[in-house]
UniProtKB/TrEMBL annotation:
GO MF entries: chitin deacetylase activity; metal ion binding
Subcellular localization(s) per the UniProt record: Cell membrane; Secreted, Cell wall
Name of the molecule in the record: chitin deacetylase
Key word Metal-binding present: yes
GO term, biological process aspect, one: polysaccharide catabolic process
């Protein structure tokens, strides 16, 4: 017996269009004042357990900058009975109260699931003044950043010599966008074998949430507890400064913690030194709060090219993006854009429906882009997307687990370097040099293949093993 939820919006959804995707500020800065009048929505369960939700969203106080968002039909197999109505998940939604953490992590606690992990530091000792300003690209002249720059230079990983992109995406950088030697994922979806973009096993979902910790993360955590699911959280260093206890709670609850930069900038637009500062400060603040350092990173917006890849790998971070099945379709729910009024909740659930059918049809598992930054993104995840995913029998795990690795293998200090050699160790055998035209020349050492063969059964290592097998046609790039 399947429950069916169909959502029909009789009226056009009209919400104010925010001028840009404001991705940096904490949720309460970004959230608009409530101006949306919502018609009551009705939820009716019929005898056949079909659930029908009809919601309508009335126009906001229209301005000349308003836009009409198209609405979409979708069906869900299951929803959370306590979900907020879809008609309330809109730009400018009234702020819902945040729920407190179920337990404040005690300093000195040890995550029992993670052998070898040090006791939890006391978050009260965290001094924001010891870190760069929040939500800005960190300066590069500090002793810490200078040390990380030296470490990257000494890593043996050569950084491609091409210059940073300018802001404005593909159209503002036509040459870079069409240069296969840069392998710029954001424009065209190019990946290297070292990129993690899915899970190897059919029907397995490597669950991820980005941009937190934030005000409504606690609500997501308690739902995940309730349904006994674990996730990967790609956290922004600046948000860790603001919510260290939430980060500790995620970690103690057996979620995987991963790096999502310090200021959430477009990494390909930054200099090498700035990228090093973004990743270095993020690693440091996470280690200062948890006692361990993640070994995977997600580039904000998927803005990664070979220069960003090389720097990440040199800093011990394996890039993780999300699944892309065609030039026009990536597994991005679009949830981020509800808050800004750029997409409707029906649009997100329509995207979700396309994702699950494409995910079910493919041989391998998958990774989806979702966020815990906004009230709306948490409400749609806990109320609709996760219950529906569970009903579809997806096997939902953190990324490290879907790759067949242990939780220890998610952190630099605890990783079993023999069975799961960090890319830097393998890449260290390889020298990359920039040609004058900006391409990469590879000279492969001998240890790379043997190092990766030793552990080819493991996820990350498997990616490395195939990396050495396949050169991209004509370009001599090892990634
Ligand atoms: C519409 O948006 C543009 C750009 O964001 C702004 O310059 C303009 O003042 C806005 N107009 C109104 C009526 O709000
Ligand atoms: C729209 O909002 C403005 C400013 O908030 C207010 O002055 C105006 O009366 C509103 N118009 C309507 C039709 O509600
Ligand atoms: C996969 O997603 C695309 C849109 O991204 C959609 O057009 C297509 O129908 C989906 N495929 C399946 C099998 O659902
Ligand atoms: C793996 O190597 C890292 C340095 O890259 C080190 O900090 C860590 O302790 C090593 N792991 C183990 C289990 O020794
Ligand atoms: Zn992000």
């Amino acid at each position: 017996m399947r429950s069916l939820l169909s959502f029909l919006v009789p009226l056009l959804t009209l919400v104010s269009l925010s001028s840009a995707r404001v991705h940096r500020a904490p949720a309460h800065h970004v959230r608009q004042l409530a101006t949306t009048a919502s018609a009551p929505s009705s939820v009716a369960a019929t005898a056949s357990t079909t659930v029908t939700v009809s919601g309508s969203v009335l126009p906001t106080n229209a301005t000349s900058n308003s836009t009409i968002l198209p609405t979409f039909a979708f069906t869900l197999q299951s929803t959370n009975p306590t979900a907020v109505p879809l008609s309330s998940i809109v730009a400018g939604a009234t702020s819902a109260p945040t729920s407190p953490l179920s337990a404040i992590p005690a300093p000195g606690s040890v995550p029992t699931y993670l052998p070898g992990a040090p006791p939890l530091p006391d978050p009260n000792t965290l001094r924001p003044a010891d870190y760069p300003p929040l939500d800005k690209v960190p300066p590069i002249d500090s002793p810490q950043v200078q040390q990380w720059i030296a470490d990257v230079k000494n890593s043996g990983v050569a950084i491609p010599g091409f210059s940073p992109n300018v802001l404005g995406g593909c159209s503002a950088n036509p040459q870079a966008a069409s240069d296969p030697n840069r392998c710029w994922w954001y424009c065209g979806g190019c990946t290297r074998k070292t990129d993690i973009t899915d899970c190897p096993t059919h029907m397995e979902w490597g669950l991820t949430y980005d941009d937190g910790p934030a005000y409504h993360t606690t609500q997501l955590l308690s739902y995940l507890d309730q349904v006994q699911l674990k996730s990967t959280f790609f956290v922004v260093g600046s948000r860790v400064i603001s919510f260290p206890s939430i980060l500790q709670a995620e970690y103690l609850d057996q979620h995987q913690i991963a790096v999502h930069t310090w200021s959430h900038s477009y990494l390909t637009t930054l200099t090498n030194e700035q990228i090093i500062a973004e990743l270095g400060w993020s690693k440091k603040v996470i280690k200062d709060v948890l006692g361990v350092t993640p070994n995977i990173m997600r580039p904000p917006y998927g803005d990664i090219d070979d220069r960003v890849r090389a720097i990440s790998i040199a800093m011990g971070l394996t890039p993780v993006i999300w699944t892309r099945i065609s030039p026009t379709a990536t597994f991005d729910t679009g949830d981020f854009n509800i808050n800004g009024g750029l997409v409707s909740v029906s649009g997100v659930l329509y995207n979700w429906e396309n994702i699950i059918s494409n995910a079910t049809a493919r041989d391998r598992g998958f990774i989806v882009l979702e966020h815990d930054l906004f009230q709306q993104t948490v409400e749609i995840a806990t109320g609709y997307i996760l219950p529906d995913a569970i009903a579809h029998n997806f096997v939902i795990k953190p990324v490290v687990s879907c790759l067949g690795l242990t939780y220890q293998d998610a952190y630099i200090e605890l990783n079993d370097n023999k069975t799961n050699p960090p890319l830097i160790e393998v890449s260290g055998a390889v020298s990359l040099t920039a040609t004058p035209s900006g391409g990469l020349i590879q000279s492969t050492g001998t240890s790379g293949n043997s190092a990766s063969k030793k552990s080819a059964s493991n996820g990350l290592a498997l990616a490395v093993a195939t990396a050495f097998g396949g050169l991209v046609a004509g370009s001599m790039i090892i990634f």
